[in-house]
TrEMBL record:
Classification lineage: Bacteria, Bacillati, Bacillota, Bacilli, Bacillales
A UniProt-annotated Pfam family: Polysacc_synt
Organism superkingdom: Bacteria
Major subcellular location class: membrane
Membrane topology: Multi-pass membrane protein
Keyword Transmembrane helix: yes
Protein's recorded name: Oligosaccharide flippase family protein
Keywords linked to the UniProt accession: Cell membrane, Membrane, Transmembrane, Transmembrane helix
GO cellular component assignments: plasma membrane
Organism: Bacillus aquiflavi
Length: 536
């Protein structure tokens, strides 16, 4: 891989992390403004599914396709895809917008099922329609990003991604503030403005990409003049290859939103059946908005790191180099567990102060976060195993595993909610993802002839280190409880910082001392040791 591509990949990964961090921290002022954010969630879950289907995998698929033919000197093929793709993505965006806009009155009554709920059907219709406008722009934006990435130019995608997020968040907060504090409007109007921010953010991101296109068009035109002209590939063949490559990314992209959609259609019904309709909206907001945003952060960081190893897995499998492939799979699984396990255990231990820092003190929110955090390990392993299945050309089983997981979630959600109330939805999600991950692992074992023996042994070591970390942090947490309370934001933040420093110190000390860091991260661990001036 060229140094230019490595640098670009790092920039793109950094932009993704920045966007996710911004997406997490803006909820503090947003929740302070609007309070219960479940109405926001009711709009965003179906929107996420539509946007995933319309665009998931498009940047990567287009990037791979253009890069492939640029390498062969057939620059006209990539330009042909780009020109026709702009038209197709525009049509896809408009159609997606119209479908979601018109489905809103049909979907909303299936979500709001009891008059005791605080949210009304017409409110859900309004916010779904507000967010649907973003579908017009996002597909085109994803295609342009793919075009730049195919030319090993990651900067435009990275900058547009961050700008899109900053503009969206700015519009969310300013719009909600103006509606509620200046215009004396209601919560529904404020959240409608907040969901429409997805369109404004997409417009900002698209403007950035257009600026980059105009700036670099002379360079792309020069490449076109170097075209060999030996290939004339039909649009039908081009898009068939793009679709085949995109499908696995679509499946992974919509997995989590589909689980959340099941909650939207069943949670309120189950809560109403046990006489808790009045608190149903708030409880669902805690699951699908509040705690989900916190849980998904360690997942994103772990999978982003481990997925960089997947191209090596693909190469080793294609070349039938079993030794190299086994080594890559060992490292991938261990890295995911090494990064995710201590993070989710820490979040679970510090659930109450963590929830307080972001959303204010709420015992139900803390309780849900405590049981939801460990499910993040399953989220991470589903994403990684699905990527590995694509690497060994068995992505068809990803569809099977997801369908099984969704069926389990759908079958158990209402019964478990009736038994365990809000936590029941989390348990159903965990069981669904567990089944999907087990299926993926079995397929990897059979088709890649991969032995999990080393991973299991190393997992025991990582689990032991995590247990010692938990004990140390738990003791400190207990002692701090005599002088600090998780009921206020400032004291909760102090608790988190002190406990995190102690827990991380124990975990990384053991990891460096036993050379586990070196085994997993190689030279990166040595560089970190030198920077920290560690004596071991």
């Amino acid at each position: 891989m060229s140094s230019k591509l490595l640098r670009g990949t790092f920039i793109l990964t950094l932009a993704t992390i920045i966007s996710k961090i911004l997406g997490l921290f803006y909820v503090i002022p947003f929740k302070a403004l609007v309070g219960d954010a479940v109405l926001y969630t009711y709009a965003y879950v179906p929107y996420t599914i539509f946007i995933s289907i319309a665009t998931a995998g498009v940047p990567l698929a287009v990037s791979k396709y253009i890069s492939k033919y640029n390498t062969l000197g057939e620059y006209a093929v990539g330009r042909k895809l780009f020109k026709s793709g702009l038209l197709i993505m525009t049509i896809t965006g408009v159609v997606s917008f119209l479908v979601l806009y018109m489905l809103a009155p049909i979907v909303a009554p299936e979500i709001i099922v009891d008059t005791d709920q605080t949210t009304k059907v017409e409110d859900v219709v309004t916010v779904i329609r507000s967010v649907s406008f973003a579908l017009i722009l996002v597909p085109v934006m994803s295609l342009i990003r793919g075009f730049f990435q195919g030319h090993e130019s990651m900067g435009p995608s990275a900058v547009s991604q961050v700008v899109e997020q900053i503009i969206r968040i700015g519009f969310v907060l300013i719009g909600a503030f103006v509606v509620l504090k200046i215009m004396d409007g209601d919560i529904v109007s404020a959240i409608s403005v907040a969901t429409f921010a997805a369109f404004i953010g997409a417009a900002g991101g698209l403007i950035v990409l257009i600026w980059y296109w105009l700036k670099r068009k002379p360079y792309f035109d020069q490449l076109l003049k170097k075209d060999k002209g030996t290939m004339d590939i039909s649009l039908k063949d081009i898009y068939w290859e793009i679709i085949q490559y995109s499908i696995p990314f679509v499946i992974v992209g919509i997995a989590n939103p589909l689980f959340q959609l099941i909650d939207q259609f069943t949670f309120n019904r189950a809560m109403s059946a046990i006489g808790l309709a009045a608190q149903s909206d708030t409880s669902l907001g805690i699951i699908n908005f509040d705690t989900h945003k916190l849980v998904i952060i360690p997942v994103s960081l772990a999978t982003a790191f481990s997925l960089t190893l997947i191209p090596s897995v693909t190469k080793a499998f294609t070349e039938r180099d079993r030794q190299s492939m086994t080594s890559q799979l060992n490292q991938t699984f261990q890295v995911v567990l090494f990064l995710t396990l201590p993070a989710v255990v820490g979040i679970s231990l510090l659930a109450e102060p963590t929830y307080t820092v972001f959303y204010g003190h709420n015992q139900l929110g803390a309780d849900v976060l405590q049981v939801y955090a460990p499910v993040a390990i399953l989220f991470a392993f589903f994403s990684v195993t699905a990527a590995i299945l694509q690497g060994i050309n068995e992505q068809r089983f990803t569809i099977l595993s997801l369908l099984v997981g969704l069926l389990i979630k759908l079958s158990l959600n209402i019964p478990l909610i009736k038994i365990f109330e809000t936590k029941g939805a989390v348990y159903a999600t965990a069981l669904g993802y567990l089944a999907a991950v087990i299926i993926n692992i079995i397929v990897i074992k059979l088709f890649a002839r991969y032995s999990f023996r080393l991973v299991i042994h190393r997992s025991l070591l990582i689990s032991f280190f995590t247990f010692l970390m938990f004990i140390g942090a738990a003791i400190v947490y207990k002692l701090l409880g005599f002088v600090l309370t998780p009921d206020t934001r400032m004291e909760s933040l102090i608790i988190i910082i002190i406990c995190a420093v102690v827990g991380a110190g124990i975990y990384f000390y053991l990891s460096f001392r036993t050379q586990l860091m070196n085994v997993l991260f190689g030279e990166r661990a040595d560089r970190l040791r030198k920077k920290l001036r560690l004596p071991f």
